[in-house]
Amino acid sequence: MFASLDLPFIFAALLGLSILIYVVLDGFDLGVGILFPFATPDDRDTMVASIGPFWDANETWLVLAIGLLLVAFPVAHGAILTQLYLPVAVMLVGLILRGVAFEFRAKAPLKHKRAWDGAFFTGSLMTGLSQGFMLGLYIMGLSYTWWHVGFALITAVFLTVAYSFIGATWLIAKTEGPLQKKAVEWSQGGIWGVVLGMGAISLATPFVSQRIFDKWFGLPQILYLSPLPALSGLLVGLIWWKLRRLPMAGDRFAWVPFAASIALFVLGFAGMAYSFYPFIVPEAITIYEAASAPESLAIILVGTLIVLPTILAYSILSYWIFRGKATPLRYD
Fold first, then answer.
1. What is the sign of the dihedral through the CA atoms of 32, 36, 39 and 42?
2. CB distance 265 to 24 below 8 Å
3. Percent of the chain with pLDDT over 90
4. Which among 22, 68, 113, 215 would be 20 to 30 A from 98, CA to CA?
5. What angle do CA 55, 57, 58 make, to 5 degrees?
């Protein structure tokens, strides 16, 4: 049944889709946590409520991505995670800290609530920074040199800012009143960090290898790819223009910055995917070299075609059920 399919490509696409959905969905709820120090205690309750029904399900996409990497590309799984062992450990500690703090901040005695708020922020920051470091090191070929580590540290900061930005746009859509106005201000500051981060990655990536440079600047590729930076520029302009006019009467167009931010993330991810294809370990191992046996991939695909739509369905359902404005989280 699957003999004629390009199974490594299919699984690479599924892996990329899982990572993209995770970055967007868990990105905004990490961003909400990163913004905690700038909010009042009452605002923090509403901010947590805005992500309460979703944050746990959002992390499912990370589990799915790592699972696909392990079963479909075991060689790449070993090579990538071996090089990223320390930042992965930091990320896991951050995710655990977030999960514990999320539950305890609402149940612990009031005098301890501030400490758990700090733990939620710390866990969010650790997760964002570690993921940004991993991204930067991956772009640089997973090798530890002073230059590569320096670039990874810069990427860590910019991805964390990008998470805070998409988190702020989420709050614009999900809150109202003074908190919504604060979220607009946070977004206005954060968008420039996103622009700088995307610019730094876009400038650095083509110089990682001659192959990537030729894919972007050779002819006729440069003509075909020119819409990508143009669309990115238009989206940044749209977000900035809309932020200067929000909030509007009747809460009109409050969703536009968040939707445009998602589109911006998708374009950035598409550019990276194009740059590194067909390599899954940059300039070292292709998806075809790292893939499991075709017979194994065929069996795994059957399970994936059941699991992936299920995750999509309950994610969409949860966002539909809990649509509308958030109210402070309560457990009574």
1. positive
2. yes
3. 31
4. 68
5. 60
Domain that holds residue 30: 7-321
How far is residue 172's CA from residue 187's CA, in Å, rounded to a whole number? 9
Element (H, E) at 286: strand 285-286
In a domain, 329, yes or no: no
Contact 48, 36 (CB under 8 A): no
Q: How far apart are CA 155 and CA 161, in angstroms?
A: 10
| 65-101 residue pLDDT tens | 998 999 999 999 988 988 999 999 999 999 999 989 8
Q: Is residue 326 part of a domain?
A: no
Mean residue pLDDT of the chain comes to: 87
Bond from prior residue into 109 cis (ω within 30 degrees of 0) = no
In the chain, the number of structural domains is 1
DSSP state for residue 37 in the 8-state scheme: G
pLDDT of 301-316, one tens digit each? 888 888 888 988 988 8
CB-CB contact of 165 with 185 (8 Å): no
Helix (H/G/I), strand (E/B), else coil: 85 = helix
Q: Does 220 map to a domain? A: yes
In a domain, 327, yes or no: no
The answer to whether the predicted template modeling score (pTM) of the entire model surpasses 0.85 is: yes
When comparing pLDDT for 312 and 57, which is higher?
Answer: 312
What is the spatial distance between Cα 131 and Cα 150, in angstroms, rounded to a whole number? Answer: 15
